[in-house]
Every structure is written in C-alpha cells, then in structure tokens.
Amino acid sequence: MMASFAVFALIMSGCGNGDTKKTEDQSSKTAETSQNNATAQEDLTTKNTEKNEEVTRDAGGYIVDQELPKEATYINDLLIASKKYPLPADFAPGESDEARAAFEELKAAALLDGFTLSAFSTYRSYDRQVELYANYVNRDGREAADTYSARPGYSEHQTGLAFDIGEVGNEQYFADNGFATTAAGKWLAKNAHTYGFVMRYPKGKEDITGYMHESWHFRYVGKDIATDIYKNNSTLEEYLEIGK
Ligand SMILES: [Zn+2]
Question: Does the global pTM surpass 0.70?
C-alpha cells in the first residue's frame, strides 16, 4: 500500500499548467497505474497517520473527502499551499508585488551573467485552475490529469507567490526538467535564494513535498528563509516541520 502511494506521489505536478505531460514523470509511471477498474482507487488508497489523526489519501496523494478551508493557512507567517493545506476557493490575492519586485532583481542579476530569464507563469486564480483541470480531465481522464495538473484549490500558483521561471530562447524547456540541464537553470538553482526564492519541489524530496521535481517552479519566501532552506538542502515542509 505504501509503495503504491509513493509511486503516485512522485508523479504529481504542482504546477498544473499542463506542459509537463511529456517529461520523465510520465515514463516513471508503473504498471500499477494501468489499473483502471472500478476498484483501482480503493486498492491504491493508503492510510497515513499524522499527529494521531488518520487521513486517507487517494491515488493522487490527496486527502479523501477533504473540503477546501474557509481560511488560507499561515505557519510562522508563511502562506502554505499543498495537498495537506489547500486554499479557499475565494482566496484571490493576485500576483504578489513583493515577489514580482524580487523576481525583477533576480532577473537583472541573471542578465549580468548572460541569462535572460522569464517568469512564464505566476498567479493563477481558482477559477482559472478549475477551467484548466476540467479541460485536462475531459481530455485525459482524472487519473492522468492528476499527474500533471493540480486540482483547484491546491495549486501554489493561487498564492501569487509561485513563479515558473525559464530562459528566453529556451522556451522548449518551459515547465520541463530539461531546464535543469541548461546553464540558466543551473544558475537559477544556485542563485534564486539570494533574491528570496526557493525551488519548491526539489529532486529527491518528492516524498516530503508530495510533488514530483520541478526545476522551474520557484516560491517566494523572502531572502532569510530562502537562504536557510537552500543552505540546508531543505524544503518548505522541512523548514516549517509540516507534513506534505
Ligand atoms: Zn509552477
């Protein structure tokens, strides 16, 4: 049961812009995903005990029967959006001015080193996420859609603090882990924290964040916290000591 859950946790995308479907996360799907009978969900459901509270997760790693909350969750003053802590449907802050200003600084620094960065996807409203997810479910079915698109209320892009970053001229690597192999991707991974951004879903941390690696998805948390997380090779979940 746990093994099945781990497999699905690995292939979940936090971005949900649909551009990730061709990447390695798809080929990492195992034969287990081919179960398409009516009992598949039941078979793949697993139970996690977290702080004496038993929660049941579905094949997508989402908590079964979880309702979106009335309030967004802040832990140590940091807004969090994850499978454990979704956002209210009416939470619509728009893109953060502070995060945008930090990105502009980051972009200017990158340019001095010869890289032209682009934030190709930032704030995404709940309604837009509803639209995107419905289209993907319609096209590919729910199980497949869950592997590359966040469900409405669960996308970090709804916080206004998530920036998908790529390099102008290398658009083929937008929302693609091929970005990690480029000089610009390496520069960003090494320098983003100086401007307050952390790579939100690092490689090797899939079972901690609950999402597959996304070398392009960055979350603004401010310079101090970003530097702490970067230097400790950590994640937002580990920094806040919360579950995925
Ligand atoms: Zn993203």
Answer: yes
